[in-house]
């Protein structure tokens, strides 16, 4: 690894939280508002999960990045104010956690702007963005650059942050990569008829998985970015496992535990290369039968 962290740090770790609340189920199907139990499952995040996680972070003396959909900010302004009062970074996560795949630049711009307006009502001017479902479009970087965002955290193509070029106007922003293995959704998320595999993992297994990941990142000098959802990891046993992991990470010599905003600022100040990602297209002279499965 050629990436250089500040001072005596050899690697970095960020504990991030997506405060989706009800937005993600309403974006999937507005009719879900009639499902009282499902809505209560999501409301657990801002009502119980966020306060518990804020107490955990305060006890461990670390600052985190909370990605907040505009709808969450409108619905639970006091919860977002508690995050701000705790000294944490609030970043953009769409308005209603909208499905992003294949949408037009005009439609996406509307989602971005409405989310910005909601956060602005709480005095938040975010510098960071995470696409709902981590689904970035090829036009998204330009939309973010035009709106003054400093970083995105939605792509998977590296172990360290880098500067990402837009297609227009010559601007760039920092990309801080993520990984599905470092998401509590894949480990714990389940609600009948809505999401998940039905396999809810043991917090001990999840702690071991994430500890091995952060140990490897630390050894490689790279950047460990964990994504948690308060309606999931705000539950007692899962929060306890996360607390244990944070303690393990803080005990590692030479690891910088900080917000994504701080990581982005360091990257922008120290990395000169700006990367352009090439879009890979399927060959037009090779028709593929897509009526069959993908078995090996």
H/E series = EHHEHHEHEHEEEHHEHHEHE
CATH topology: TIM Barrel
Quaternary structure of the protein: single chain
Supply the CATH class.
Answer: Alpha Beta
What is the assigned CATH homologous superfamily?
Answer: Glycoside hydrolase/deacetylase
Q: Radius of gyration from the CA trace?
A: 19 Å
Largest sheet: 5 strands, parallel
- The amount of beta strand, in percent, is 5-15%
**Class per helix and strand makeup:** alpha/beta
* Count of distinct structural domains: 1
What separation lies between the terminal Cα atoms?
34 Å
Low-pLDDT residue intervals, each spanning 5 or more residues: none
Which architecture name does CATH use?
Alpha-Beta Barrel
Measured as a percent range, the helix fraction is: 40-55%
In round numbers, the mean pLDDT is: 95
- How many helical elements? 11
Tell the overall outline.
globular
- How many strand elements? 10
Structure summary:
The model has no long low-confidence stretch (mean pLDDT 95). The chain has eleven helices and ten strands. It is α/β, with parallel strands linked by helices and 296 residues long.
Entry keywords:
296 residues, alpha/beta, TIM Barrel
Structure in words:
The chain has helices spanning 23-28, 36-60, 70-75, 77-85, 105-120, 140-146, 184-188, 203-220, 230-233, 236-250, 260-270; strands spanning 11-18, 65-68, 89-92, 128-129, 151-152, 162-165, 172-175, 223-228, 255-257, 274-275. It is globular and about 50 Å long. With 296 residues, the protein is an alpha/beta fold. The mean pLDDT is 95. It contains 11 helices and 10 strands.
